[in-house]
Amino acid sequence: MALDSLHDFLTPVDFNEITGDETYNSKHIGFHIKRCNELLHAEDADLFIIGVPEFRGGYPAAKGMSGLEDIRKEFYGLFYWHSEINIFDLGNIKKGATIADTYAALKTVVKEIISANKRVLILGGSHDLTIAQYQAYAELQKVVELTVVDALIDFDMESPIPERNFLMQLFTSEPNFINHYNHLAFQSYFVHPSMLETIDKLRFDCYRTGVVKEQIEEMEPVVRNADLISFDISAIQHAHAPANTLSPNGLTGEEACTLMQFAGMSNKASTIGIYGYNASTDLHQLTAKQISHMMWYVLDGIYKLKQEAEISDADHFNQFKMAFSEVEATFLQSKRTGRWWMLMPDGAYISCSKNDYLMACQNEIPERWMRAMERS
Question: Can you give the pTM of this predicted structure?
Answer without folding.
Answer: 0.94
